Structure formats: C-alpha cells, structure tokens
C-alpha cells in the first residue's frame, strides 16, 4: 500500500511548514496502523506566542484533499496576529485520499461512512485534540465531520459546513452527475482509470481555477492506484435503504437534529450536486444555525469566494459561546431581551383594521386594471375580510403551517391583498419579489427563498414550471384541467377559499415571528431578501399613519408597490391605478386622475419613474381629471430621492397637495421626509447632494465618516458636514437578510450596540452627510464613491452641478483607473438626446467642466443613461464606469 507523504513544496498558497504526518493505530491493536497527512497551524501560532482559543477540525470531500482548507489554515494565523481569537486549524487528508496512506486495496473494496467516522475519531484520539472543537466539512467530508461531531459532544463547541448533505428525500433520484459516475460500468472508468470525475469537479469552480491550483488538486491523484479512494467515495454514496452506509447516514442525520451548538452553513447555490434542498434539510435540523448563501458560487465554494473571512469573522463574533458552555445563545430563550415585554403589549397586528371593519360595506380596495371600458372593481371591507378569513382557513387545510414560506406572483390588487393578509393571519411568511427583477432576478430570488408554496397567475406559474422554482403551486385564477396539469398546479385560490371556514379560530402569530421576506431592487447587486417580523410591519404602518395623518376616510392611490398593500392595515380604502406595476413608466396622468376620482383619495404615492411619465402625459388630462387631482392633499414620491424640478412639475398637477419625498429603502421603508417647501429652502444653501429632510418620529440617522481610501471606518455620529456612510435606526427596521449572515454582519458592523428590539442599526450603503439643522443630504452609494489621489468624492453633488447646464438632461459621475488614483469622468444625457455615444463636443465639454470644481478627465454623451431594473430612476454608475473605462481605452463607442 502507498504510505503517507508530504505534498510538493511549491503548491500555490500552501506553506509547506503546515504539512504533517501522523501514524494512527487501527482499533485497539498497537501493531497495526495507518499514516495520515494533515495540515496544522499550531506551531505557527506558538512561534508568535499566540495562545490557542480552540481547534477547527476540517474535513475535505471527494475528490479534493486538505489543500481545500489552505486559506483558512493560514488566515487563522494572520487574524490572530491582528488580535482576533486564535484557532488552531487541523485539516486532514482522509485515508485513501490526498497524501494519506492508501489502505483499501484495488479489488473493489472501499471504506464505508461508518469506517471513515471511526477513522477520524482514531486520528483525533492519537493527536490528543482537546476541546473546544469546531468541526468543518465540505461535500462528503461534511457528513464525516458531522459524524465526529455527534460522537464527541464533550469536545464539540460548534459546527461549520460548506455544501454537503445528511439526508436524501425518498423517491428523488440522487443528482445526475453522481448517478452517471456511479453507473454500472462507469464507476471505475470515470473515477479511477481516468481523471474524468476529478476534472469535472475542478471545472465547477467559478471563476475558473488557475492552472497551478488545478495541478495542486491533481497532485495526490496522478495514478489510477492513487485514485482508488475517489471511486470508493462514489461507491459509498448511500442511494437507498439497502446500501451498507445508509444506516450510518440515518444515525448521523438524527444526531445532527439534536445538536444545539452554534453553527454556520456557507452555501454555493450554483452547485449541481448539493442543491438548495439539502440546505433546507440542514436548516430544518439545526434551525438556530446562521446561514450565508454566496450568490454565484457553486460546489467549490472554498475556491469561488473568500469563505475563510466569513468563517473567521463568525468565530470571532461567537467566541464566548464557542469557548464557554454556560453562555446562552440569542436563540435559546434564556432571559427576555430589553423591551420585549413592551413590544408584546403595544403590538397591534396588521389585520386588526379588517377585524374592526368586517361589517362595513364601504370600499376597501379598488382595482382600476379591469380592462378598457370596464368599471373599476370595488371590494368592500366586509367582502375583503370574509375572503381573507376563508383563504386563511383554506390554506391551513391544504397544509400551510406557521413559518411556511409562500411566494406571491400576483400583481397588486384585491387578490394579492386578500392573499397577503390571509398568510399573515396564519403566520405564513409572505415572499415578495418584484416582477421588475426580470426572469433571471426572479429565479435567483425565488430559488434563494425556497418557498414551500407558490401562488401566482398563469404567467408566473408558467415561469415557475419552466425554471424549476420550488413550492406547491396554487393558481390565483381558475384554470382548465390540461393547463393545471401542464403547470403542475395542485389547487386554485378559489378552491382554497371554498375549503375555508370564515368563522374558524386560527392561532395568530406573535410580534417577533417572521411575517415577510421582501426582495430589494437588485440595483446594487443581486436582490436580497429582507426579513420583517410582524412587529416591524406594524411599526411601519404606525409611523406612516402618524406622520401623514391617515384616517379611515383618507383614501390612498398607490402607484408604488410596497405601499399598495398597506391600505387595509391603515384602515382606509386604497386603489392601484391602471398600470403595469413591473414597469412604472406605464403610469399616465390620466390613470392617476381616474384612480383619485374612483376612490376620492387624498393621498397619492408614486415612484420617481412613474412620476416622470405622469408629468410627461399631463397634456392628456381633461378638465374633470384636473378637478379630481385638485382634491389631493398629500403627494409622496417614494423609492428614490427626486429633484426639485420634477417634484414641482408633479405638484402643478396636484396644486392643493403638500408634496413630500421621503427617504428610505427596502430595509427600512420610511426614514426621513422633506416637503417641496423644504427642498426649496435647502436649494438656497451651498450643500452637496439631495436633501431628504429630517428623521420621521423616533427614527435616528448617523454618519460613519469615510477615510482617505473611501471606506466607512468612522464611528457613527451625528456631527454636521462629514461625508460618510448613512447609518440608521427605526422600530420598523428589518430583522436581517434571508440566509445572508455575512451581509447582515457587514450591515451591522461597528454600529451602536443594544439589546433592545426597538433600537437596531443598519449601514445603508448610501453616502451623505448631516447639516447643522439635522437634515440628511444623500450624495450617492458607497460603491460609487470615487477615490482620487486627494481622497474620496461622492458623485451626486457634481452631477447636480452639471445638470444646471441647459443642454444636459441628466448626468452621472464615475471614476476610472485604480482605486486611490481614480480619474473623474462625466457622462451625460443631452437635450435633445444624442444619437450615439461619443466624446462631448468642445463647447459642451467646456461648459460642463466650468459647472463643477471637480477636474474632469473626460466628458462623454450617451443617448440614455442606464438605470436600475425596478425604479428606472437610479443610475447604474458601476455599469457606466466599466463602459467608460473601455471607451477611453479605445473600445468602439456603443451605448452603455
């Protein structure tokens, strides 16, 4: 048999000083032994005089080896030198794998799962590992590490996992790549006699592995004899109850469900083998685990992303819980958080107004999108409440349970309103992703949220079927039997309601239960699922009602989807105008007037993109339309800050309304507010950015100053005139992001610490400053800050300066070149529009340069600036920067 050996000394990123070998007795016989290769950073820590906090026991899968963990082995030493808790990392090569001894022979025998778990226990016994131990595993090494964890409760302090599985559902084939590799006649050919299985695995990395890294993974598997363990691992996959390793897998999976130690699951969702259903299963077994899905990463997550940074941060954050058994976790229920009792006492659920008005025949919801020539559809409070109760009861009877996720692919209107409130009443979690995300964005969002049920109209159901979106499918409308079968529909919403009993008493969720997952716009990266509790949604309702004085007879026209569902919660009638909600630019002035007239609404909510087209189509208004709009008392532009001129133009359509432009985001929909008069006042003062006013109610706003490198490193404070990242707190601030632990951690980094649920903080990613009157000025997004040789520059102030040039309709400022030496480039839409992208003419360029104190390296014109996919209002500066850099490098000018 091939004995253990040390890897070559020239493998990239692997310090040969970490390599060790250890001879481990087999069973109780001291005469028989196997030799292991492993990586260990203990000596490196000792050389630096760094005491060890605990041990990470890292186990690779198939067909990798301990090289997979090289960055964590080294990174633990580096972070410990910087003052973080020091973790000894021991990364083993399993027997028959990597540079450990080959012990199984070549006659078809392989090591079973139970043997591998015993192997690992023998190794740690011989090495004399002491607690606390945190296990770390990937692929089938994840199962082996969990087997060790279950068997060593006295040493175990925590669990770390990358893509793996401990259970496979009955009746579901194992993933296709494994079926192919394990097929009769293919197993040896693809795993042992050739490098096909190894090559296929390495090809899963995204981005592709460097040739030297690929070669490092191949180093222990140069010959068929040394690849026998790869085939053995595939042969040992427990495909059913008759497999010899099935019982051991069942034992481990049951043991995992009993673990209460801190845990972190890191996941690459593009993995074709360990797909998201395996993550769902692991979360079901350890619901207290922290989870982070690295969007775009796949099976080789440890190569695709700097996972070690997340691991080491998590270990640092949880050091007390991992090293002291008597420290209670936030999820274990010991002790009541400050303010929790007050939260329970003051909580009024969103559906309370429906209860209050259930005998009322006045209109609650009005649907204007009923088709040409058809009257608006009016749904009374009585009818809405009855529908909500029937659907809620019916959903429970088809198996929807508290905590189940229900994805909604239904446009705003009476149906969506009824379904949302029905789900909330029974504690189901509403998952809402805007159709404006596009097919790819929606697919990523729905798959990431992993809904248990999906309710949609035909178009959404067709997409769900074609793209493999998860969830039991419920049709929002009646469908023929062939269509139902083709779409995989199990029920219609009408059938669900018919099953329900409106008088059934259903258990209600509590204020801290999760109520909704609302996806961000995706304008600054992949859309993120923002988690809200019932208490937070109720707090949003309350701050909205108080600030804008909304009463039962107020009436709302909501051309902005997030607020379209709040009418019933506020106890007032609401109407969505006739428009395509996924394309705000389809809203016309006449449609707004018709909605106001139909509802006698005194408040109008619109998004900036919708306002652009409303103003552009104002010439189509009749005298009756203008009379209806004259009755509006409050007008709000929500979704993104808008300029004074656009707000004034929309104000002219509603001459008796006070115009507001609140500032907020999906994570906290209302933070500050400013009126048109406030904007006019701010315009007389020499300040950069868009003034969005002062905090609403008890909301708080601080600023974390940018350093010379453009990073928000300053302690959040309320001092005036300091450019930095905007940090906010509010009772209706989100709980966190769904399955994005690292993103949550970054959003809460260095914010004021508190245990009160009423005082949570969030780094917004926006940059700006406070003035000496406490008003907030937004100057752009943190990723769009230009870092020049003289320091950071926010884009919005210079863009506003440039937009004073008569020939400029809109402007964007971007930086090109290396960070710290970036040059500033202006890109503009002109009036009239330019026919093509090009360098600006000499006269226009000179006028633009004269308008701003910033030195401009270039001025470019484009027919239209690219905007984000939801609001059609936020300029995509990152895309523009990449485009401009290419153009100025000599690429042929095309539209960005």
Structure description:
It is a single chain. The termini are far apart. This protein has 34 helices and 36 strands. With 896 residues, it is α/β, with parallel strands linked by helices. Mean pLDDT is 90; it is low at 326-340.
Question: Mean pLDDT, as a whole number?
Answer: 90
For CATH, the homologous superfamily of the largest domain is named as Alpha/Beta hydrolase fold, catalytic domain
Level-1 CATH class name of the largest domain? Alpha Beta
What percent of the residues sit in helical stretches (DSSP H or I)?
25-40%
Which percent band covers the strand fraction? 15-25%
Strand-pairing-aware structural class: alpha/beta
Descriptive keywords:
36 strands; alpha/beta; Luciferase, domain 3; 896 residues; Rossmann fold; 8-stranded mixed β-sheet; 34% helix; 34 helices
Give the gist of this structure:
The chain is an alpha/beta fold and 896 residues long. β33 (808-816) and β34 form a beta hairpin.
What is the topology?
Elements: E1 19-26, E2 29-40, H1 42-47, E3 54-59, H2 70-81, E4 87-92, H3 113-127, E5 133-137, H4 140-151, E6 156-161, H5 176-182, H6 187-191, H7 196-202, H8 211-218, H9 228-235, H10 246-257, E7 263-267, H11 276-285, E8 290-293, H12 301-304, H13 307-317, H14 319-323, H15 340-346, H16 352-356, E9 363-367, E10 377-380, H17 381-397, E11 405-409, H18 414-426, E12 429-432, H19 438-449, E13 453-456, H20 458-467, E14 472-475, H21 481-487, E15 489-492, H22 493-499, E16 514-519, E17 529-533, H23 534-548, E18 556-559, H24 561-564, H25 567-570, E19 574-576, H26 589-599, E20 603-606, H27 608-616, H28 623-629, E21 634-637, H29 644-653, E22 658-660, E23 663-665, E24 668-673, H30 676-683, E25 690-695, E26 700-705, E27 724-729, E28 736-737, H31 741-747, E29 761-770, E30 776-781, E31 786-788, E32 791-793, H32 795-802, E33 808-816, E34 823-830, E35 838-839, H33 842-851, E36 856-862, H34 877-888
Helix pairs in contact: 2-13, 3-4, 4-10, 17-18, 17-22, 26-28, 27-29
């Amino acid at each position: 048999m091939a004995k253990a050996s040390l890897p070559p000394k020239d493998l990239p990123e692997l310090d040969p000083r970490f390599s060790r070998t250890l001879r481990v007795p087999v069973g109780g016989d001291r005469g028989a032994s196997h030799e292991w290769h492993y990586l260990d950073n203990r000596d490196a820590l000792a050389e630096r005089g760094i005491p060890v906090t605990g041990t990470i026991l890292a186990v690779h899968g198939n067909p990798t080896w301990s090289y997979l963990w090289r960055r964590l082995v080294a990174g633990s030493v580096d972070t410990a030198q910087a003052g973080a808790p020091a973790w000894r990392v021991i990364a083993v090569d399993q027997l028959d794998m990597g540079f450990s001894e080959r012990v199984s022979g070549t006659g078809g025998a392989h090591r079973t799962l139970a043997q591998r778990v015993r192997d690992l226990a023998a190794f740690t016994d011989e090495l004399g590992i002491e607690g606390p131990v945190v296990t770390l595993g990937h692929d089938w090494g994840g199962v082996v590490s969990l087997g060790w964890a279950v068997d060593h409760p006295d040493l175990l302090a925590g669990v770390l996992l990358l893509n793996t599985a401990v259970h496979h559902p009955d009746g579901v084939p194992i993933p296709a790549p494994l079926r192919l590799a394990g097929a009769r006649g293919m197993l040896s050919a693809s795993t042992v006699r050739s490098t096909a299985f190894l090559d296929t695995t390495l090809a899963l990395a995204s981005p592709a592995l460097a040739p030297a890294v690929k070669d490092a993974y191949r180093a222990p598997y140069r010959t068929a004899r040394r690849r026998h363990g790869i085939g053995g691992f595939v042969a040992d996959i427990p495909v059913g109850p008759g497999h010899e390793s099935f019982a051991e897998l069942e034992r481990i999976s049951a043991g995992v469900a009993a673990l209460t130690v801190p845990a972190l699951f890191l996941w690459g969702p593009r993995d074709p083998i360990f797909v998201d259903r395996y993550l769902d299963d692991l979360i079901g077994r350890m619901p207290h685990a922290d989870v982070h899905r690295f969007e775009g990463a796949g099976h080789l997550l440890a190569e695709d992303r700097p996972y070690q940074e997340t691991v080491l941060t998590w270990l640092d954050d949880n050091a007390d819980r991992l090293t002291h058994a008597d420290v209670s976790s936030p999820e274990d229920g010991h002790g009541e958080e400050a303010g929790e009792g007050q939260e329970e006492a003051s909580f009024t659920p969103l559906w309370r107004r429906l209860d209050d008005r259930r005998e009322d025949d006045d209109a609650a919801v009005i649907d204007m999108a009923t088709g040409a020539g058809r009257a608006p559809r009016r749904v009374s409070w009585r009818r809405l409440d009855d529908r909500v109760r029937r659907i809620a009861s019916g959903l429970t009877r088809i198996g929807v349970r508290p905590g189940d996720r229900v994805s909604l692919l239904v446009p705003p209107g009476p149906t969506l309103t009824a379904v949302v409130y029905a789900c909330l009443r029974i504690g189901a979690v509403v998952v809402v992703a805007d159709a404006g995300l596009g097919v790819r964005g929606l697919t990523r969002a729905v798959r990431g949220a992993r809904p248990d049920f999906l309710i949609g109209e035909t178009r959404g159901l067709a997409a769900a079927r074609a793209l493999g979106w998860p969830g039991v499918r419920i049709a929002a409308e009646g469908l023929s039997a062939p269509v139902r079968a083709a779409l995989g529909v199990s029920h219609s919403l009408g059938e669900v309601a018919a099953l329900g009993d409106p008088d059934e008493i259903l258990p209600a969720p509590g204020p801290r239960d999760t109520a909704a997952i609302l996806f961000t716009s995706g304008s600054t990266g992949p859309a993120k699922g923002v988690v809200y509790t019932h208490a937070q949604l109720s707090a949003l309702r309350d701050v909205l009602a108080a600030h804008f004085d909304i009463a039962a007879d107020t009436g709302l026209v909501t051309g902005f989807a997030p607020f379209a569902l709040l009418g019933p919660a506020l106890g007032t009638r609401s109407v969505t105008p006739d428009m395509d909600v996924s394309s705000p630019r389809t809203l016309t002035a006449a449609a707004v007037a018709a909605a106001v007239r139909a509802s006698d609404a005194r408040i109008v909510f619109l998004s900036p993109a919708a306002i652009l087209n409303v103003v552009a189509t104002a010439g189509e208004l009749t005298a009756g339309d203008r009379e209806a709009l004259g009755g509006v008392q409050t007008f709000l532009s929500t979704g993104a800050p808008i300029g004074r001129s656009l707000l004034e133009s929309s104000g002219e359509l509603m001459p008796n309304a006070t115009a507001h432009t609140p500032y907020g985001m999906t994570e906290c929909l209302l933070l500050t507010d400013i009126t048109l008069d406030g904007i006019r006042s701010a315009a007389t003062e020499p300040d950069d950015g868009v003034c969005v006013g002062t905090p609403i109610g008890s909301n708080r706003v601080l600023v974390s100053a940018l350093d010379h490198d453009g990073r928000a490193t300053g302690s959040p404070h309320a001092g005036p005139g300091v450019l930095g990242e905007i940090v906010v707190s509010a009772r209706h601030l989100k709980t966190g992001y769904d399955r994005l632990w690292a993103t949550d951690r970054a959003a809460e980094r260095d914010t004021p610490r508190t245990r009160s649920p009423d005082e949570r903080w969030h780094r917004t990613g926006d940059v700006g400053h406070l003035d000496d009157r406490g008003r907030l000025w937004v100057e752009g997004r943190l990723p769009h800050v230009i870092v020049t040789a003289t320091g950071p520059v926010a884009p919005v102030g210079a863009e506003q300066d440039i937009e004073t040039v008569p020939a400029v309709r809109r402007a964007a400022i971007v930086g090109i070149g290396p960070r710290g030496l970036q040059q500033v480039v202006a890109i503009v839409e002109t009036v009239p529009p330019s026919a093509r992208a090009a360098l600006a003419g000499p006269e226009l360029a000179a006028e633009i340069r004269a308008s701003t104190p910033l030195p401009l390296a270039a001025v470019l014109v484009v027919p239209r600036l690219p905007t984000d996919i939801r609001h059609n209002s936020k300029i995509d500066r990152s895309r523009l920067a990449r485009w401009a850099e290419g153009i100025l490098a000599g690429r042929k000018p095309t539209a960005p």
